[in-house]
Specification:
Length: 446
């Protein structure tokens, strides 16, 4: 259970040294309690207090790192049932299955195809992260060989799926450097799988036919010293699988059940008879509450909407996505190119810049800090006023880059035109389109 500010304050040195950036230890404690500060900001906290605070501050669902390299990610670490209560932290990871009897050439072709599934959205690169290598014939040599191929030749990280500890051990020997997730410890193999995970410092999935069975497995593995666990409740019927996911999350968050305080893995690929239904089920688990979602295949028509859903759900609702304030070159503008201004809300910037690019008219785009608000909202909130925009134009440096004195403002902010003109004597303030979709035609017609 999280500590209150007063409880945290009792564990602090109470020196009021101000080195943490706030005037008093009490203020620092309150910031810690509300997650606005980090314990490392206090240089004088004792080791004993640090240990107590770290334990108390640990999220009810343990964050588990999977993989190494550019697609390494964490799953778990969540603290709320509903995103609007605070936020969700570690986005669902997506995996596609490759069976161990697949020919090497076919695996290489599939990896190339899957690697091309990368989509640019509001400045972010959306893509799947994992390959689930599934043992289907008990051939340990082939399994280890494919694990090595995937680990060494692709950016994807691995889930190693087998019921045999011997086969898993062989694959870990060839691909363990990529920090694969081992799947899965069950009642019959928990000791052997636990030893592999412990000896190699790897995350381990557990699978049972019931939540009580999961608790028995996680308690045993934690007792062995293994902390990075992922839970598969074993249900493969959609309704029961959803109920299990919700029950596990609620038990960890509401009841403080540490035995279930781990991220989950689910398999829509085993719950659907066609790709479309598989994608639909996967979308349900992105929302509630799949840490890793395993698909039978990764295709654009299925993975793209899932990645967008993930982006929407795991974007912090209390912190708008923003871009840096400054001057952006669209195309190769020169001293005669038009100058436009907008806010730093990421979606606004990428839509506006995209429309300018589509116009083929090289332009200067000035992005003013509006605390992540869109144009109309920022104007209504007093964060995109005429005086502010005029001052920004003066200080941003655009006057050194162009010879003309013409500024195009968003149509929704037409009311600020007069104030901008007063702040920028001699400048011609042009009111642009209200909708971004009309920018291309507007620029071409000038």
């Amino acid at each position: 259970m999280a500590l209150t500010g007063i409880q945290i304050f009792k564990l602090l040195p109470k020196t009021n040294c101000k080195e943490c950036g706030v005037p008093t230890c009490l203020a620092f404690a309150m910031n810690l309690a509300s997650s606005k500060a980090e314990l490392d900001q206090c240089p004088y906290v004792s080791d004993e207090a640090r240990a107590q605070l770290a334990e108390a501050a640990a999220p009810p669902i343990r964050p588990v790192a999977v993989g190494k390299g550019v697609r390494a990610a964490k799953t778990g670490g969540e603290t709320v049932l509903y995103r609007h209560e605070k936020t969700f932290f570690n986005p669902t990871m997506f995996a596609g299955i490759i069976s161990s009897d697949t020919a090497q050439a076919e695996v290489e072709a599939k990896l190339k195809s899957w690697n091309a599934l990368q989509y640019e959205r509001v400045g972010l690169n959306l893509r799947p992260e994992l390959v689930a290598l599934k043992d289907v014939n008990g051939d340990g040599v082939a399994f280890a060989s494919l694990a090595k191929l995937i680990a060494e030749t692709s950016e994807f990280n691995l889930i190693l799926m087998s019921e045999s500890a011997e086969i898993i051990s062989g694959a870990v020997a060839t691909a363990g450097f990529k920090r694969p997730l081992i799947y899965a410890a069950t009642e019959t193999n928990v000791d052997a799988f636990g030893k592999i995970a412990l000896d190699n410092g790897l995350p381990l999935a557990v699978k049972a036919d019931s939540i009580d069975g999961i608790i028995a497995l996680t308690d045993k593995l934690v007792g062995m010293g293994i902390k990075d666990l992922v839970i598969d409740p074993g249900s493969r019927e959609v309704k029961q699988a959803l109920q299990d996911m919700v029950a596990i999350r609620r038990a960890a968050l509401k009841d403080g059940n540490r035995s279930l305080g781990f991220p989950t893995i689910c398999f829509p690929c085993d719950m659907a008879s066609n790709v479309a239904m598989e994608g639909l089920i996967a979308s349900m688990f992105v929302a509630k509450y799949g840490g890793i979602v395993v698909m039978s295949d990764l295709t654009t028509e299925v993975i793209f909407p899932l990645l967008l859903e993930r982006l929407n759900i795991y974007t912090d609702p209390q912190r708008p996505m923003t871009v840096t304030e400054g001057i952006f070159e669209i195309g190769t503008p020169d001293e005669n190119s038009p100058v436009l201004v907008t806010t730093n809300f990421a979606l606004t910037y990428f839509i506006v810049s995209g429309e300018i690019e589509a116009s083929k008219v090289a332009s200067w785009l000035l992005v003013k800090d509006s605390e992540g608000l869109s144009v109309l909202t920022a104007w209504a909130a007093g964060k995109f006023g005429g005086d502010d925009v005029g001052m920004f134009v003066k200080k941003c440096g655009i006057m050194d880059k162009v010879k003309h004195k013409e500024l195009i403002i968003p149509g929704y902010a037409a009311a600020i035109a007069g104030d901008v003109e007063e702040e920028l004597p001699g400048w011609n303030i042009v009111v642009g389109p209200r909708e971004a979709a009309h920018i291309a035609g507007f620029l071409k017609s000038r």
